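Quick one, tokens below:
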């Protein structure tokens, strides 16, 4: 049987894809180099980093206050400055930073209202 080897991309609709891509490039250093976004190589993940694929119950409140049916998680090298950067860029930081065995987590709503979880992995 063929098997899935990992997540190959995150694709979503945006009101203004170029403007939103530019925002992520300016405020989080997303390496926009492809006409359709950025490419991240799996070997660039930090020690302890991995990708999660997880369907949530349709009634989850975890994506709140966004009204979208999805949320993405981005791995960062330093959570606190990353949250300050996006806030400076006009994002709305939501919730409090949480620390778990897998690392530290923080959240924001981007300029189009997408909820984004930032994850600073714990080095395993």
């Amino acid at each position: 049987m063929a098997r899935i080897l990992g997540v190959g991309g995150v694709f979503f609709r945006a009101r203004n894809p170029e403007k939103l891509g530019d925002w992520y490039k300016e405020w989080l250093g997303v390496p926009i180099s492809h006409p359709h976004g950025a490419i991240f190589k799996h070997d660039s993940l930090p020690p302890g980093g991995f990708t999660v694929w997880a369907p949530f119950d349709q009634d989850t409140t975890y994506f709140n206050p966004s009204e979208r049916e999805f949320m993405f998680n981005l791995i960062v090298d330093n959570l606190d400055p990353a949250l300050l950067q996006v806030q400076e860029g006009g994002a709305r930081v939501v919730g409090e930073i949480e620390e778990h065995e897998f690392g530290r987590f923080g959240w924001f709503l981007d300029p189009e209202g997408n909820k984004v979880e930032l994850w600073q992995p714990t080095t395993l």
